[in-house]
Specification:
- With 322 residues, the protein is α/β, with parallel strands linked by helices.
- The protein has 2 domains: 185 residues, Rossmann fold (3-Layer(aba) Sandwich); 114 residues, Phosphofructokinase domain (Rossmann fold), CATH 3.40.50.460.
- The chain contains 11 helices and 11 strands.
- The strands form 2 sheets. The chain has a 7-stranded mixed β-sheet with strand order 3-2-1-4-5-10-11, with helices on both faces.
- Helix 4 links the parallel strand 4 and strand 5.
- Helix 1 packs parallel to helix 9 and helix 5 packs across helix 6.
- The termini are far apart.
Amino acid sequence: MKNIAIVCSGGDVSGMNPAIKHFVEYALKNSLTPYFVYDGYEGLIDNKIKKASYCDVASIINKGGTKIGSSRSKRFMQKEYRALAKQNLDAVGIDMLIVLGGDGSFRGMDIFYKEHGIKFCGIPSTIDNDIAGTSYCLGVDTSLNVIKNAIDAIRDTASSFKRAFVIETMGRECGYLALVSALTSGAELCLIPEMSYDLQAYEESFKKQIEEGREYFLAIVAEGIKEDSHSIAEWFEKSIGIESRVSVLGYIQRGGNPTVYDRLMAYKFISRAIDGLLDNRDESVICFNDGGFSYKSIHEVAEQKYTLDKALLNHLKDIRDV
């Protein structure tokens, strides 16, 4: 039997555990021996590599995070530590890896493959959904649902106290979470790094809305905008004349019970990743676009700049024109 391992790298997402569960099941179905690499690329270096079985993945499909841990490894950037990782994999006869992570993780694995010939398949896994070449990354659906629930709860207080709430999502460089959440929650304001804005442009409209009976506002902002959330809240109070509060959602966006969609996509990603490796696709990333999956090269994914879908940005422009 050939040996295959799975590793999580970078930020955890809900959907990793369902992927890990199906990895074990599908590997065994294909006469492969599954192994876990614990704690990301650090685990490759520190030899935290263990054989996995069905009992290791029982009762994890409904849990957020990752059973096998993750990390951001600076050591893996150094050639000497990659050589040590190769020795550890050779000791147990592993020459195939599935990597759940982002473009930085894929670039690291690309170097590893070129140096040492360890075949791999990457599965885009980040709540920011900011990997080029794919319209969907594992975990983003659960994150959006966590944000949706938070916004719906905050709306209750906003309407009860007649306040403006500035709700900050993750996204230092990408506004996907903020944008989709704003569109699907009916927010009155959405600010993201990808689009410049002038708060003064909203003043006349917002004041008129208050005159016509609006009693509260919801503003969804990404953490990477030029001003902090408290400055936006202060603007609501001083310029619009409505009491305001800030709610920074923070790390609750990364955890939580994986949605049905993320569980299903984890299943599909893993199946295609293992199929690809068995079909001699030695270094690829599984991408999902227009309802279908495809294998793409590292160049198409990790070396291209991600941009938000133009249709989504046009919807944001529609909000701003109201």
